[in-house]
């Protein structure tokens, strides 16, 4: 009989969404290209969008317009952003989880770890995607990019989620520099998934541990907390 696996030495684990749990670049590209076409702009590629994700939707829309023609005025940008957000909220393509996400979240929850979500994606879209995936009940606390007056890389975005989960020892799991910076500012160790949208060489993200597969997260957390 093999020994039971060691306990996971964190009371809470907070996840990023895009590039960490869901492979959303294809969906964001599709929705964004509809907005661009309504403004008579050419389409952007998924590869370009992968380089624009992580700073929130306003930054994504701003960059998409900057790469496809003259930069928009602030007023026009607001209209374009509202168009993009409404279209994304109404989009009914099922979101795609990275392999192993569902199982890994279940393993952590079964081990008594509280799960949180800290994303720069707007809260209503985040909630809709989690509902569509059936994952909402797993998350005890969630903060989107518009939930608080601050967002990642500000450490208060992450600290708020940790507090909402009841505090204690926490770890962050993300895919880009904003996740690492927020974790450092909040004094929380951080794991970075290498398959996401890092926008720089993953070795330079400054994470405590780099992981190629999320199924390896429980063991990585045991190493991190040891
Ligand atoms: O930039 C976004 O919209 C969201 O990105 P995040 O889920 O990786 O924080
Ligand atoms: Mg991300």
**What ligands are attached or bound here?**
2-phosphoglycolic acid, magnesium ion
Low-confidence stretches: none
Mean pLDDT: 96
Assign the CATH topology of the largest domain: Rossmann fold
User: Total number of helical segments?
Assistant: 9
SS class: alpha/beta
Shape: elongated
Rg calc: 18 Å
- What is the fourth-level CATH superfamily of the largest domain? HAD superfamily/HAD-like
- The domain tally reads 2
For the biggest sheet, the summary is: 6 strands, parallel
Helix content: 40-55%
Strand order across the largest sheet: 3-2-1-4-5-6
Q: What's the β-strand tally?
A: 6
CATH architecture of the largest domain: 3-Layer(aba) Sandwich
Element pattern in H and E: EHHHHHEHEHEHEEH
CA-to-CA gap between the ends? 25 Å
Q: Beta-sheet strand percentage?
A: 5-15%
- CATH first level of the largest domain: which class? Alpha Beta
General description of the model:
α1 (25-38) crosses α4. This protein folds into two domains: 12-23 and 96-225, 3-Layer(aba) Sandwich (Rossmann fold); 25-90, DNA polymerase, domain 1 (Orthogonal Bundle), CATH 1.10.150. The protein has 226 residues and is of the alpha/beta class. It is built from nine helices and six strands. It is elongated. The model has no long low-confidence stretch (mean pLDDT 96). The chain has a six-stranded parallel β-sheet with strand order 3-2-1-4-5-6, with helices on both faces. It binds 2-phosphoglycolic acid and magnesium ion. The site of 2-phosphoglycolic acid has 12 residues, from loops. It catalyses: 2-phosphoglycolate + H2O = glycolate + phosphate. One of its GO terms (biological process) is glycolate biosynthetic process. One of its GO terms (molecular function) is phosphoglycolate phosphatase activity. The active site is at residue 16.
